[in-house]
Every structure is written in structure tokens, then in C-alpha cells.
Amino acid sequence: LTERAQLIDGAAAERLRRRAEVEPERAEEVLERARGLREAVYRAFTAVNEDRIPSERDLEVIAEEAATAAASRRLAPASGRCEYVWREEGRLDRPLW
């Protein structure tokens, strides 16, 4: 899905597929995290849309994943400017970021 949405390129997607084959347990853990994040985002936005307060747990899940993503990038020089780049391209949880 992240490849089709052009969030990662084909080469990165292939590296992740190969890594998932080597680390199937870790891949399953990441898949469960992705599902948990998807559900937390859905519930939180549904609550906001219905003028309700999102649950603390859903907001914690979203915040934890956002913190992991932020810690996984760094500023790097690029063509006379700076840009964020991912520290570890091959991490299985990269599509969550």
C-alpha cells in the first residue's frame, strides 16, 4: 500500500519485503502496530467529527508512533538547503512514518 501511495519507492519496498521474509516475527509485530495505529487514527478522527473527545489511549498510540517517527529522522544538507532524511531506510516499521 505504501508503495502504491508513493510513500516509498519500489526499491525501498523490495528491501522491506526481503527483510520481512528474514524477520517474519518482527514483520508481524510491525503489522500489528500498523493496524493499531490505523484503528486509533480512525477512532480519534471519528470522535472529533462527532464532537466527542478522543480517548486518551488512542491519542497515546498516535503520539507514540509520531515520536518514533520523529526520532527516526535527521536533518541533512541537500542542494544548499536542509531536509529531513530517514536514519534507517531498511526498518520494517518505516511505512508507519
What does this structure look like?
This protein has about 100 residues and is of the alpha+beta class. The protein has one domain (about 10-95). It is built from three helices and two strands; from the N terminus they run αααββ. The protein has helices spanning about 10-20, 25-50, 55-70, and strands at about 75-80, 80-85. A two-stranded antiparallel ribbon has the order 1-2. A hairpin with a 2-residue loop joins strand 1 and strand 2. The relative contact order is 0.16.
Condensed summary:
The chain has 97 residues and is α+β, with helices and mostly antiparallel strands. It contains 3 helices and 2 strands; from the N terminus they run H-H-H-E-E. The model has no long low-confidence stretch (mean pLDDT 89).
Which radius of gyration do the C-alpha atoms yield?
Answer: 16 Å
Counting structural domains, the number is 1
The helix/strand class is alpha+beta
- Spell out the helices and strands N to C: HHHEE
Q: Helical percent range?
A: 55-70%
Which strand order do you get reading across the main beta sheet? 1-2
> pLDDT below 50 for ≥5 consecutive residues: which ranges?
none
Could you tell me the number of beta strands? 2
Percentage of residues in DSSP E strands:
5-15%
Q: How many DSSP H or I helices?
A: 3
Major pleated sheet:
2 strands, antiparallel
